[in-house]
Specification:
Length: about 280
């Protein structure tokens, strides 16, 4: 049984737009209850990031998860970033330490853990990465740190894509950027060893959309989707049908959520409980 809610209860939240699909409240509240911690987690649909950060400060929230489209926009409003968040230029976790708001990123580590568990080779693999937002930045830098081969960024936001390509190249990566839907993008996807979707395409409720045409995928490739709702996106379903090794975003989601939990509470996350909640909700 979880503690009663009173003035001593610590509040955490996810901020994003949209957030109606988010499983974070169910996952974190189950984890808090499992360890009998006096925390509650809620979801806020946020369009004004500056006002949201002022709210975190003013109300004394213990922390926050940050999701699409605010992972980079929130940075100027925070007091400090940890080293990885600074390198990536993306924040998915805010910790309130005595009134100072600190930004972290746990997305990249979660993605690598998911790929490793599925036996997906990353080192020296040619990567086609779809998306250029906050999650894409985190995953791209994590792949680079794991020794991946050349990376082709496939995106629609040209300025965002150019900025990410420049930052990755400065970090020592072999990087190319191409516009989504064009011939260069199709060639890069077809030639990749690892196709990664870090765009929101295919996310609930738009479950019939896919960022990658099925005709471009083939046996010998691996496909990873950062989208976790639904558990099997159209992209992954078609990748599996084409003979690819397909990896759901569920493990990335659980891994990054566990790291958030530990940053907020200082306690080891009950990962099994968190995974069970995600899988049960998605199957339902």
């Amino acid at each position: 049984m979880s503690p009663s809610i009173d003035a001593r209860t610590k509040l955490c939240a996810v901020i994003g737009d949209p957030v109606e699909h988010s499983l974070s409240p169910a996952v974190h509240n189950a984890a808090f209850a499992a360890l009998n911690l006096p925390y509650v987690y809620v979801a806020f649909r946020v369009r004004d990031v500056a006002a949201a950060v002022a709210g975190i400060r003013g109300l004394g929230l213990a922390g926050a998860s940050v999701t699409i489209p605010h992972k980079t926009a929130i940075i100027p409003y925070l007091d400090e970033l940890d080293g990885q968040a600074r390198r990536v230029g993306s924040v998915n976790t805010v910790v309130n330490r005595n009134g100072r708001l600190l930004g972290y990123t746990t997305d990249g580590a979660g993605a690598l853990r998911a790929m490793d568990a599925a036996g997906v080779p990353v080192k020296s693999s040619r990567v086609a990465l779809v998306g250029t937002g906050g999650a894409a930045r985190a995953v791209a830098f994590a792949l680079l740190s794991a020794g991946c081969g050349p990376v082709t960024l496939v995106g629609v936001e040209r300025d965002q894509m150019a900025a990410l390509a420049g930052d990755l190249a400065e970090a020592g990566g072999s990087i190319k950027a191409v516009a989504a839907g064009g011939a260069d993008a199709e060639r890069a996807i077809a030639a990749a060893d690892l196709i990664v979707n870090c765009s929101p395409v295919g996310m609930h409720p738009d479950v019939n959309e896919t960022p990658v045409p099925a005709r471009l995928m083939h046996e010998g490739q691996s496909a990873f989707d950062a989208v976790y709702n639904p558990m099997e996106t159209r992209f992954l379903r078609e990748a599996r049908g084409a003979g690819c090794r397909a990896v759901s975003g569920v493990e990335m989601f659980v891994g990054q959520a566990a790291a958030q939990f530990e940053l907020w509470t200082g306690r080891e996350a009950p990962v099994g409980v968190m995974r069970e909640v995600v899988v049960e909700a998605l199957r339902g």
